Amino acid sequence: VQLVESGGGLVQAGGSLRLSCAASGSIFGIHRMGWYRQAPGMVRELVALDLRGGVRNYADSVKGRFTISRDDTKNAVYLQMSSLKPEDTAVYYCFANVLTSWTSTDDYWGQGTQVTVSS
Question: What is the pLDDT of residue 47?
Answer without folding.
Answer: 98
